[in-house]
Amino acid sequence: MNEKREFYRRVTALVIPMALQNLMNVAVQSADVVMLGRVGEKALSASSLGGQVNFILSLFLFGLTSGASVLCAQYWGKKDTRSIEAITGICLRFSLLMGVLVAAFTAAFPGVIMKVLTSDGQVHDLGIQYLRAVCLSYVLMAFTSVYLNIMRSMERVVISTVVYGASLLINIIGNALLIYGLGPFPKMGVTGAAVATVFARLAECLMVLAHNRWKNKLIRVRPGLLFVKNRLLLQDFFKISGPVVLNELLWGVGMSATAAILGQLGSAAASANAIVQVVRQLSTVVSFGIANATAIVVGKAIGEGKKELARTYGGRFIRLICVSGLVGSLVVLIVRPIVMAVMELTPTARDYLSLMMLLLALYVWFQAFNTLMVVGIFRGGGDTRFGLVVEIAGLWGGSVLLGALAAFLFQFPTPVVFVFILIDEYIKFPLILWRYRSYKWLRDVTRESCIS
User: Fold this and answer.
1) Considering only CA atoms, which of 49, 47, 29 is closest in space to residue 263?
2) Domain coverage including residue 365
3) In this predicted structure, what is the pLDDT of residue 437?
4) Domain count, the chain
5) Which string of DSSP letters, residue by residue, matches 196-217?
C-alpha cells in the first residue's frame, strides 16, 4: 500500500504540470482559432494551414527529444548526469540545425508550401503572409523544446509549466493587440497572430536561459555541449531517437496530409477541421500528460534495474488512461454545443463541424490508449521501433490512403471523408495491444559507463 501511494503521488506530481502544459499549448492554438475565427473563415483557414509547418517541426522536435528522454530517464535512474549532459548536447545540435533549415525554407518558399495545402486563392495569399512573419519562431522553439523536455525526463516539470504559462499570456495579449489593432497597434489580422507567436517564443527562450543560468543545479547546458563527441552515446541516440523521429514525422506529415485533403475540399472543410483539431487536443491534455509521465516513470524503473516493477507500472497506467480517455470523450460532447454557439462559420462549415465532433468523441478514447502505449510504455521501455511500424500501418495505410481515395477518386461527401481520416487509431489498437502483451518492450538501453 505504501508503494502504491508513493507511485500515485509521483504520477500526480508529474501528470498535473504536464497536463497544464498541454492545456496551455492548446489554449494558444484556441486563442488563434477563436480570434481569427471572428476575423473571418479565410483568415482562420490560412492560419490553420500555415501552422502545419510549425506542427511538423514540433513533431520532429518531439520525436528527437522523446528519443533523448528515453535515454535520459534511464540514465536518471542510474543518477548519471554526465551522460545526460552529453545527450542534451547531441539533441541540441540536431534540433537547432533543423530549426534553422525549416525557418530558411519557409521564409524563401512560403508560396510553395501554401500551394500544397490549399486551392483557395485568398487563403493561399493570407497563408504566405502568416508564414513569412512566423518563421523566426522555429529557431527559438528548437532550443526551448529540447531544454524543457530534458528537464522533464529528470522529473523537473514545474519549469515547463511556468514557461508555457507566461508564453500563453504573452500570446493572447499579443493576439488581441495585433489581430484587431487595439490602442496604438496596427490591425494586422493573420499576420498579427504570427508576430504574437514570435514574441511568445522569444519570451520562452529568455526564461529558459535564465533558468539554466541561475536555477538549474542538475546539469549544465552550455555552448560547449554542442561540440561534445561521444561515439557510444551518439550510436545509442540514433538507435533510440531515429525510429521516434521518423515515427513523429510520419505522423505529422500524415496529419498535414489529411489536413491538406480537407483543405482541397474547400475553406468550409478546412476551417471546421481546424476547430476539431483544437477540441481534440483539449480533450486529450490529461491523457497525453499521463503518457509522458509513463515514459519517465517506466524508464527510470528500468534504469534502476527494476523491470518487474516497470511492468507493474505499465498495468497501472493502462487503468488510468482508460478513465482519462473516457473523460476526454465526454469533454468533446460537453464543449460541442459551446463551440457551435461561439464560432462564426458559414452554414456548410457548421454542418461539417457538428458531425465531425460527434465522430471525434469516440476517436479520442482510442487515441489516448494508443498514445499511452507508444509514447509512454513502449518508449519508456526502450522499444521505439514498433511505434514506427504501427504508424505506417495505421496512418499511412489507413487514414491518408483511404481519405485520399474517398475524397478524390470516389468523391464522397466531406463528412464521409472525415470518417476515413479518423480510421488510423482503430487500425492501430489491436496491433498495439498485442505488442504490450508480448512484453518485448522491456529493455535497458543504458551503458555502464559512457563518459570517461
Assistant:
1) 49
2) 2-438
3) 92
4) 1
5) HHHHHHHHHHHHHHHHHHHT--
Q: Is 440 helix (H, G, I), strand (E, B) or coil?
A: coil
Q: Is residue 446 part of a domain?
A: no
The phi-psi region of residue 228 (left if phi > 0; otherwise alpha if psi is between -120 and 50; otherwise beta) is beta
Pick the closest to residue 53 from 120, 122, 139 (CA basis): 139
CA-based nearest residue to 159, from 215, 228, 103? 215
From the list 90, 180, 191, 211, the residue with the least C-alpha distance to 132 is 191
| Residue listed under C-alpha cell 535497458 | 444
CB atoms within 10 A of CB 451: 15
Domain assignment of residue 443, yes or no:
no
pLDDT digits (tens, 9 = 90+) for 281-327: 889 888 988 998 898 899 888 888 888 988 999 999 999 999 999 99
CB proximity list for 385: less than 8 A, separation 6 or greater:
243
Cα distances (Å, whole numbers) of residue 92 to 131, 143, 154, 273: 24, 7, 17, 33
The torsion of the CA quartet 359, 364, 366, 367, rounded to 10 degrees, works out to: 130
Q: Compute the distance between CA of residue 244 and CA of residue 71 in angstroms, rounded to an integer.
A: 12
CA angle (281 as vertex; 279, 287 as ends), nearest 5? 125
Asked if residue 447 belongs to a domain, the reply is no
Positive/negative CA dihedral, 305, 311, 312, 317 = positive
Give the Cα separation of 207 and 213 in Å (integer): 10
Cα–Cα distance, 350 to 414 (Å, whole number)? 12
Contact 70, 299 (CB under 8 A): yes
- CA distances (Å), origin 181, targets 87, 173, 184, 190, 222: 44, 11, 7, 12, 40
Q: What burial letters (b/e) apply to 340-351, b meaning 16+ CB within 10 Å? A: eeebebeeebee
157, 76 Cβ separation under 8 angstroms: no
**Coil, helix or strand at residue 37:** helix
In tens, the pLDDT along 338-351 reads 888 877 778 888 88
- Which residue type sits at 438? S
15, 296, 297, 300 from 313: Cα distances, Å:
14, 11, 8, 11
Rounded Cα distance between 78 and 73, Å, is 9
User: What is the identity of the amino acid at 177?
Assistant: L
Copy the grid coordinates of residue 427.
487500425
Residue 324 lies in a domain: yes
Confidence band, pLDDT 50/70/90 cuts, at residue 449: low
Residue 381: exposed, middle, or buried by beta-carbon count in 10 A (0-12, 13-18, 19+)?
A: buried
